[in-house]
Amino acid sequence: MAVKKVPLRQCVGCGEMKNKKEMIRILKTAEGDFTLDATGRKNGRGAYLCPDMECFRKAVKNHGLERSFKMAIPKEVYEALEKEMEQIGQ
After folding, report:
1. pLDDT at 63 exceeding the cut of 90
2. pTM for the whole thing?
3. For the YlxR domain, which residue ranges apply (predicted)?
4. CA 70 to CA 38: how far, in whole Å?
């Protein structure tokens, strides 16, 4: 029997490769909105983060999300994403 390949994704905060299902997907929609994608199946460009506030802070500090999406991200988007991350962490 063949072994099923586990999809890995790199965290834009810490840079670690982890199982896709363990991570949180940040999604940029076609309209340019940013949101957290809990299902991992919504349409749009995605970047992955560990479900840890420390990784989120690292991604903000080293501009990991900006590099992933190849655009500047407004401060309001970071604030909204931080609130959503805090809700998931509870």
Report:
1. yes
2. 0.85
3. 9-83
4. 22
